[in-house]
Amino acid sequence: MHILLLGAGGREHAFAWKLTQSKRCTKLFIAPGNSGTAAHGENVALNPLDFEAVGQFVLAHQIGMVVVGPEEPLVRGIWDYFQADAQLRSILLIGPSKAGAVLEGSKAWAKQFMQRHQVPTAAYREFTADQLAEGLAYLAQHPLPVVLKADGLAAGKGVVICQTHAEADAELREMLGGKFGAAGDRVVVEAFLDGIEFSVFALTDGKNYVILPEAKDYKRIFDHDKGPNTGGMGAVSPVAFVDDAMWQKVEQQIIKPTIKGLHKEKIPYTGFVFFGLISVNNEPYVIEYNCRMGDPETEVVLPRLKTDLVMALQNCAQGTLGRVKIRADKRAATTVFLVSGGYPGNYEKGKTITGLDKIKGSLAFHAGMRNAGDAVVTDGGRVLAITSFGKDLAAALKKSNRNARLVQFEGKFFRKDIGKDVQKLADSTKS
Ligand code: AMP
Ligand code: GLY
What we know:
By secondary structure, this protein is α+β, with helices and mostly antiparallel strands.
């Protein structure tokens, strides 16, 4: 089968790497792709948000399956566009309908959905601009810290944790005043949960689901979770504190009611559900849903996946996921992101990258990278994810760090402590 993969990040390079390991994939196209995906298929200059162009390409190139990497085409309704077209309807598309993608596209909708289906999450209220006075009064009596979230997609910047009432007051005014454009027309105010975060992924056909290996993402720019939030500086899998007892709670209290809820509400969903979770005193709560795989979590989850991914996705799109068994590599995987100097603030692109040929014993997933003549240059904030396996996280991290030092570009930065907290917890429960 010919497959078209939409997206251009490290997640998509990991998908391209995994999809092409399947005999069922006869040809892979990636739109638009990057220097890494080009090694696994043909990059095509298509905008994933131009559904008409995507549809024409699919028909012209006998594509049997479209795998959607990022959330934006899903939130804008690419699944619905394919369904509405007599010729495109039969193409397998991995990703939810617009009605399903709203789990990520609207935080207020997701909170209402969780309430309807008794999925544990932080207590909250939502406010629109004409409820500003009510919102300010609510904030004034809210315990600190308090979390403010712009309802819509805000490029990962829409969540603000306020430590003082003055800060919360100003933030609510700014969000409702248009700081994030239409994404902030509605603001969710929720209780702060103090715990440890982790990510869980399900693939669902709208009725059945399978669970992928869990992961933990490291969002802050500096070691020990200091500094501003980024798209993710690294990830690990497995996550030691997610033991059998925790998995039981996650599946029964969170995954099952979510998938059942989608089914009950007749929301078509053939794709990944990403559960951003937090464990508070060993009880899991949902911080957020995403309607796609995580980045950089994919760079550790897919390498650990032993199941044929194309087979699993075919069953997903055809409603037969019940037949699929997920098998995972027992080894630990870590990924360490090399990022551009200045990221997540301003940074320069176009820096020549050297030393890629020196990487040994790790996988190098390209993210913000592109080919420029004979050279490879930086093309984004997050540049390269270096994934390694090890008997434990410490061994895997050692390899990722060693290879991270061998790759050079002006301004290169990476965190040195990815996975160390999880490893420490694992060591303390062993002894
Ligand atoms: P999000 O953009 O929804 O992923 O949120 C960004 C980050 O904000 C999360 O990864 C958490 O670290 C933090 N966060 C969001 N909601 C809460 C909450 N209710 N309590 C504590 N931290 C939160
Ligand atoms: N790693 C978090 C995300 O993909 O949104």
